[in-house]
Amino acid sequence: ANEDTRTPFLFSVLMNGVLVALAIPLFARAAPGPSQVSALAIAYSTACLVTFLVAWPTLRRSYGFLDSRATLWALVRIGVAVAAAIVAVTLLHRFVLPPFSLDDGKAAALISLVVISAVVAAAYGIVAWLLRIPEMHEITGWVTGAVRRVLPSR
Description:
By secondary structure, the chain is mainly α. The protein is built from five helices and no strands.
């Protein structure tokens, strides 16, 4: 909207530079397999965090109206909802789902993916709704409206 393409470009260069600088050594030092995937996830997450920590004060100076306190509080609530989803999927793996291996076949992988995705979405959604994260109320409003349009009214 501000016709500023240089700032997003610089943030993108920063993020990708940090990503490459971390991904190569972390990937090389990780054991082959799932550890390498985790190494790449750590590199990506760190790159996003570094970019956020640089972008926020830069954009705040440029625009002057970014409310840091409100944003921090929103991020804390989102973090709590993410933690609830992690706990839910951990409990699911520990007590409900049998150990899964790639040798079990495509159907087992699909079922596992669907169940885990549903549990993560439900846990995150419920906690986010309880913590009054505004976007969750928007989503529930959209879903409710769509259901009302699809189902015949009585």
